[in-house]
Structure formats: structure tokens, C-alpha cells
Amino acid sequence: xxGGDDLTAEILRNALCTAAEEAGIVVVRSAYSTFIxxxxxxxxxxxxxxxxxxAHSLSTALIQCASLRSALPYVLRAYPPxxxxxxxxxxLNDVYQGGIHANDLLVFRPVFVGGAPAYFTGTLIHVxxxxxxxxxxxASDATDVYLEGLQLPPVRIATADGLADEMxxxxxxxxxxxxxxxxxxxxxxxxxNVAARRLEEIIDAHTPDGxxxxxxxxxxxxxxxxREGLAALPPGTHRGEYRLDDGHLVRVAVTADGAxxxxxxxxxxxxQVPLPVxxxxxxxxxxVMYALRCFVDPALPMNEGCFAPVEVxxxxxxxxxxxxxxxxxxxxxxxxxxxxxxxxxxxGALPAGGVAASGILQAFxxxxxxxxxxxxxxxxxxxxxxxxxxxxxxxxxxxxxGRNIIPQAEPIEAxxxxxxxxxxxxxxxxxxxxxxxxxxxxxxxRVLEDARVDTRGDRLLRPPPGxxxxxxxxxxxxxxxxxxxxxxxxxxxxxRQPLAAGEALVxxxxxxxxxxxxxxxxxxxxxxxxxxxxxTRWEAx
Length: 541
Description:
Layout: H1 3-30, H2 34-37, E1 42-48, E2 53-56, H3 62-78, E3 89-92, E4 104-113, E5 116-126, E6 155-159, E7 162-163, H4 165-173, H5 178-206, H6 208-230, E8 236-243, E9 249-256, E10 262-265, H7 281-293, H8 304-307, E11 310-313, H9 332-347, E12 362-368, E13 374-379, H10 409-415, E14 418-425, E15 441-447, E16 451-456, E17 477-481, E18 487-489, E19 497-499, E20 504-508, H11 523-532
Parallel strand pairs: 10-11
Antiparallel strand pairs: 1-2, 1-5, 3-4, 3-6, 4-5, 6-7, 8-9, 9-10, 12-13, 12-16, 14-15, 15-20, 16-19, 17-18, 17-20
Helix pairs in contact: 1-5, 1-6, 3-7, 4-5, 5-6, 7-9
């Protein structure tokens, strides 16, 4: 292409990304849930009628990209394009049809060209509550998917005349916080509508054929760059594995053809279990893409061109591809294990050295025992060190997250009967090594009225291991702090545990593993860690 064509393509790509970004901003600013309003845990995307990912908002995580991309074909199967009308909006949350779990609601709106749907705008957030054993969909004792919340196959949630009142009433009747749920749903639809209007403006400005050509060109350009990056992986089949706290194992074989094609095969992974530790296929696919993108140019746009060179094989009925009626709400531990298995497989084959394991997110919810209110959040552990670099603090692997999605203290205290007493790094929590693992965090939330707590974590019983002689990170945990200051462990999968007014939930995340023999750490690095308070002592190995 000429320089002018390149400029036009870049303008077009940015216009589409801006449309998705504006949709994401509308969702965040219109939502009712604190987790969304303050944490910006929202996603928005533009896809084409073939289900290909065209553009997405800055806040969109790779697992959300993968979900929107995976779910749209099921919408099209339930509602053929010929039966769609302008103004239609569709929703689903089914983990077996590309969704994430019950509380993550996906919304799609078709954009018509020449009387037929040519593109779709999509939005996604974790809605306040949608039934299930525990508030916010956090039941760690759910033995099947029905105990995780209301299951929603693809349904028409709105038309040009507005929301489908009958469906909205059904959803509201299945929520502990119906007003917030309906507000969140309206925010999702508003975001999809805004993106659709912007996309229509782009079509008018560039013509339908011009837009179609531009999209084909930059998707192909992204694919070429992705293949160039993946071509640097050592040819052959490389194997890795990672074990969850409960002992279940994720195994992977990564086969690189040397020309940019990669096959990721999870054959040999343990079978699914009747607990919320399984992952739906879209989430595992997102984790695979996150892991592989760590080996290519980080400036590479995330769109269908990144997916094209990668074949992912996820045996049905395993931890990485659950089937009905097995639950999938606790997927993040398994997805993170899949990522670590890929890192182990590939970094072991690369001359540049490897990477230690990371602490991952530790999710929790606090809900009112006497009246309906809900706080959901998660804290992040330290990342593992790698050859040549210490691990970052409090940024544990999150499948390629966008903005900070941890709500801030002041808005939480203003909206809910809680007090945030501490958010801090934990000294000495990063694994020792020639390069130190990132530090975990401690958060203390005191409740001002009786509440219930649900927790969901991993890498607490089996802390993130080090690599190349590095030490493991410090294990985290969940604790109940009594009014007299005594603490007792709650467990990594506590369910509806009572928390009396005046008591506190303490969440500690795991530190990342260290890399290399600790005896090889540079003295100036040790002195800096002591001065910064990242370590409190140093004993020469």
C-alpha cells in the first residue's frame, strides 16, 4: 500500500477502536454497580458478521475479547441474521456458549449495511447479582452450573421500541439487587447503542466497501505481524504443566511450525470436577492468547489477526473446557494454570531464559446479612521474576487486563457500610532469587454491620514456585479479624461465612516466585530492597 493508504487504514483502525472505547466509557459511567463504576471492569468491542474481532476498548481484557468473539456465533445460530431487525439487542451469559459465568452478561447489537447485519457491537460487564448460592455469583461450593446463577442462552433483550420488559422482569426477579442489575443491563445496552451509532458514522464516511476493505487490510497486517513474532519460537513440540492448589493438573503441548503457526493442545489435562474451578472454552482461549502475546511485539493490536495463526485444542469435559452441568465460575485459577503451563513449555525452550510463577487474583465478596448490599472485588499478587528482571508488585497475571479494575477506597466507603483500613504491600513476600519476585498485598476491610463473606483463590496452598533456583513466593490467604485483633483463616474457598459488625476481612495475596540462585543477587539490589522496605532482612545464602 502507498503511504496515503497506510494513513487511511490507521485512521480507520483508530476510529473503530474509538467507537469501542466510547461504548466502554458509556457502560462504566452508566452502570450502578460499584465494581463497574469505580473499577471500570467493562468491555466493548466491534465484530463483523463472521464473528471476527475487529476492535475493542482499552479496558477490555483478553478473556473478555475471547468471550465476545466466541459467543457471537451462538447468537447468530439462535437468531439467524435474516430474522434480525434494526434496534435488536441480544444478551447471554451461558459459559458453554462462549460466556464467562452467570454474572458476566454479554450484549450484542447488529449494525446493518444494505438491509442485512454486517457488523455487531458488543459490551460485557460483571453485573451486580444474578441469583446463585452466594451473592455476586461467588459460591465456591457450587457443584453444578445452576447453583452459580441464572443461566441465560442467547435472548432478544431489546428492540427498536426499547427493552423487552418481560425478560427484564425475569432477570430482576432473579437478583438480590434488582435495581442495580437493571441499571447495569441498561448501561450495557446504552454502550452497544453508542458504538453502533459511531460505526454507522464510520460506514457513511468511508462507504461500506471502503470499510470492508480497510478492515480486511489491517486484520491481515496484524496476522502477518503475529506470525512474524511467533516464528521466533523454537520449532517443535514443547510441553509444560501447572498444578492447582487442590492438586488438579493442567497439561499443555505447544507445537510451533517455525513459520508463525502454533498449535496449543491441552490433551492430558485432568477431567472437569463438580466444583467451580473449571473453565469454559472461551476463557481458556483467552488465557492462551495472553500467554502467546507475551512472546510477540506488545504494541501489536489485539484483533482477529492475532487469533488466526493459533489453533487451540481443548478436550471437552476437562478442566479447560467444561461441559453441562459442570460449573465454570471459578475459571481464573485454571486459566492462569494454563498460562503458566505455556510459559513453562516455551521458556524452557528459549535461550533467553525462563520466568517464575506469579501470584494471581484472589476474588472475594462481602454481602449484607440483614439487608441487601454487595461489595465484590479481587486483589492481585506479585508477578514472577524472569531472567534479567524482578517481578512487578501487585500485578499478578490477569489474562491481559486493561485499566485498573480494583475499586478505590473512598467510593466504596461512601456507598457501602464498610471501612477500608489498609491496602499495602507485604514485605518479604516476593520469592528470593538473583531476581526477586513481585510483592503481594494486604487489604483490610472492616464491616460496620453484619455481613457474609465468600472467597475464591488459588496459589495459597501451593505458593508460586521459583525458577532456575529461585525461591517460591510467600503464600497469601483470607482471614477473619475479630474485634480484639485476633485473626483466623477463612480458607481459599469459604462460602457465606459470617462477619459480625466490627470484624474485618483480611485478604493477603501471594508473592511471585524468584528467578535464579539468591546468592547471585547484586548487593546494590539487596540494599535497594532494604531501603524501600520490600525486604526486612537479608541473610547471605
